[in-house]
Amino acid sequence: MHSVTESATSAPPVGTGRAAKREQTLHDIVTAARRLAVEHGIDGFTMDDLAGAAGVSRRTLFNYVPGKDDAVIGAPPVIAAEVFTTFVAGGPHGSLVEDLAEIVVQVLRERPESPEEVALGRAAMQANPRLIAHALDRLQELVESCLGYVEQREGAAYDRQRFDVALTLVVACLHLAMDRFLTGDHGTDLAPLFLATLHTARDLLA
User: Least CB-packed of 10, 49, 57, 76 within 10 Å?
Assistant: First the structure.
C-alpha cells in the first residue's frame, strides 16, 4: 500500500550526483525504519535508534523525515513539473486512465523497490495497524493533489465521479500487480507488471 500512498509533489530537478546520494540516504532510513517496525513495533524504537540503524545523525534523520510513521511509509516522491504539464495538456496518451497510470509509473521508477523491499514495507504496515491509517491519509492527500490538475485538464467536462472511477481502477490494478510482484517471479521492475495489469482491465471493459 505504501507505494501508492506517497503524495506526489513537483520540484525543479536536482543535480544527478546530489540527488542520487539523497535518494540512497532516504532508502537507508526507510529500510531501517521498516525493519525496526517489524522487529520491535512502531512504538518499540526511538528516532535515535532509527538514526543509529540507518547510519545517519539525528539532525540528518529529521531533515528527511519528521517522525517514525513517515520514515516507514517513506517521504513523498518528487515528480518533475513536466509530467504534470503533459497531463494537464491531455497527454501523454489522451486517456484519463492511462495518463493517471503514467504518473504512477513515474513514481514507481523514481524510487524503485525490489520484491523483498516491497514485502518488508507491507510487513511493517501489517504489524502496525496505525500505519495503515496514516497511509490512507496519504492516499487522500494524493487524490486531493491530483484534483486541480484533473480539473484543468478536463475543463467544463470535469466530472468528479468519472475521476473517482478512473483512479479506483488504476489503484486496483496497482494492488493486483503488487501482489504478483511480491511472488518474486516477475522480475525487479513493478511498472511493466502494473501496466500489463491495467491493459488487461481495459481489455475486459472494452
Answer: 57
d(CA 188, CA 5): 20
CB 34 within 8 A of CB 124: yes
Strands 9-11 and 78-80, bridge-based pairing:
parallel
d(CA 175, CA 181): 10
**HSE-CB for 120 with a 13 A CA cutoff:** 17
In DSSP terms, 11 is beta-bridged to: 80
Copy the grid coordinates of residue 39.
Answer: 522487529
Rounded CA separation 54/137 (Å): 26
Q: How far apart are CA 181 and CA 116, in angstroms?
A: 10
According to the model, what pLDDT value does residue 8 have? 44
pLDDT digit string, tens, across residues 101-118: 999 898 888 778 888 988
Average pLDDT over residues 133-156: 86
What domains, with CATH codes, occur in the chain? 2-205 (1.10.357.10)
Whole-prediction pTM value? 0.78
